[in-house]
Amino acid sequence: MDRTEHFRGRLWAGDHVVMDHVEGHLKTKVKPNSGNGEWTGHFEFPPEIRPQFADGVRYRLTLIDGRSGHIHLLFKDEPVEGLPTASFHGTGSARR
What we know:
The chain is an all-beta fold. Helix content is 0%, strand content 60%.
């Protein structure tokens, strides 16, 4: 079952916290006979931290409900209004 949900958590690059408070939307697709699934979603971030993000890096997203997953980021064009947005895809815990 696919589901889209609001999430809050922390974004890591290795042992370094890139964003201590990340909030966005996550869609999980559960893999059969597994507690894992495919993750896709997006979040906004403050423009001043954009230089901390690097292409090709695998980040770890830890959610406040205990789930965790490895993701890759894709950055959208700079917004005319509002904060910059990153979309992501990867794999992680599907169940809370």
